[in-house]
């Protein structure tokens, strides 16, 4: 049985801790967990509490909403009594407010079990675009990522990642050894919807022939339709500048007219004074 416990269970919080104010409740980070160690069912502990039970390879769990802070992640054999004898970890993860993370149990390039914490980019995505991230978490040398048979990422090594902005749509992707085009994974069709961040994990082992892809899709980053840049820039700034210049010109013209009228009145007054004296 595989189960995902709530954030309260993860932290061992009592019922009183759940009655937090809305402002405090909003101050959280999001954490997903990917199991990328082939042929090994595990349990996952967070801060000593069982969080994922009988977690199967290739499975993505979460996201859990957790208060920002430091968490110890430990991966044990299935049905372990506790986290005292982990097969991976414990690994300390520092989570910050408003951030989105994925913790990955995987193999390093030499084939030893390890873990990595990735920060997921949740920034706004341009209209008509999608983001594609590839993470190399497999026991394999450097790889190239191909789209439609052409390399779009080259020389990616474990445990690195690379992100590209791409046009939204469906793309046929595959993974090949660096400098080659013969796929060791795929090809597989990826549906890259507009405004989504699609994270592809190459996991498994080249030596044992079980390399696979896992895909994590993050949604809700599309740019608002008809969005106009804020501040006084572009046409708005140009219009304001034009209005300001017009105002200054009009003010200057009115000032000159006022000076002319005043001068004319002064001349008329002097003429009238001279005429009165002659009488």
Automatic annotation (TrEMBL):
Q: What is this protein called?
A: Lipoprotein
InterPro entries, alphabetically?
A: DUF4397
Is Transmembrane helix one of the keywords UniProt gives this record? yes
Q: Which organism is it from?
A: Kocuria dechangensis
Q: Write out the entry's keywords from A to Z.
A: Lipoprotein, Membrane, Signal, Transmembrane, Transmembrane helix
Q: Where is the signal peptide?
A: 1-25
Residues covered by the DUF4397 domain: 29-145
Report the superkingdom from the record.
Bacteria
Instruction: Give me the segments passing through the membrane.
Output: 243-263
For this protein, the record's Pfam families field holds: DUF4397
Keyword field contains Glycoprotein? no
